[in-house]
Write a structure and sequence with these properties.
The chain is α+β, with helices and mostly antiparallel strands and 183 residues long. Helix content is 32%, strand content 45%. It has one domain: START domain (Alpha-D-Glucose-1,6-Bisphosphate, Chain A, domain 4, 2-Layer Sandwich), CATH 3.30.530. The chain contains four helices and seven strands. A hairpin with a 2-residue loop joins strand 4 and strand 5. This is Polyketide cyclase / dehydrase and lipid transport.
Length: 183
């Protein structure tokens, strides 16, 4: 379903977290992220929350605007390790010409640099769904043109939010460290 042919963007940026990797827990951060904290990680972030799918899988619900289009992302956890989280969403995109879905894979990971620092990587890949391809075709918009116009906006969004996500994860990690010492 998700191939290079229908890939819109593959964007990855990294930032330093000044906390020991042992204190970082990306899924815990993601699934307890206060809405104000999410909003503080990008001016395009509108709302965030978490819930579960009918089968009990954890979900992160994010609402944001990218390139002027409102997006509602329904991220399902597909990998949840302390240092690596992968979420997949068939996201709703509200365009001037109607609502359509886009598939987004959001991957967050950290790797240890030294005893007190790690490197956070925020990778976002998006793919046109069959519905989106039909939507574009119906409007006479070639996919290549759509992809070329969408990529810079998605990449700029990821580049802007990555250091702010890293700072938020760092705050959560240092809070984890403080509560561990207090216990």
């Amino acid at each position: 379903m998700h191939s290079i042919e229908n890939q819109i963007v593959d964007s990855s940026f990294s930032a330093i977290i000044n906390a020991p990797i042992e204190q970082v827990d990306i899924p815990k951060w993601c699934f307890t992220l206060p809405e104000k904290e999410y909003q503080g990680c990008s001016p395009a972030h509108i709302a965030a929350g978490f819930t579960t799918a009918p089968d009990g899988t954890r979900m992160s619900i994010n609402v944001e605007t990218i390139g002027g289009s409102l997006m509602v992302q329904h991220y399902l956890e597909t990998l949840g390790e302390k240092d690596h989280l992968i979420l997949d969403s068939d996201s709703d995109v509200f365009t001037p010409n109607g609502r359509v879905t886009i598939h987004v894979t959001w991957e967050l990971s950290v790797k240890k640099l030294d005893a007190g620092r790690c490197e956070f990587t925020n990778r976002v890949r998006s793919y046109a769904t069959d519905e989106m391809m039909a939507f574009l075709d119906h409007q006479g918009i070639p996919f290549e043109i759509f992809r070329t116009q969408r990529q810079p906006m998605s990449i700029a969004h990821n580049k802007g939010e990555t250091p702010l996500f890293a700072a938020s994860i760092q705050r959560a990690a240092l809070k984890n460290a403080a509560s561990t010492k207090a216990a």
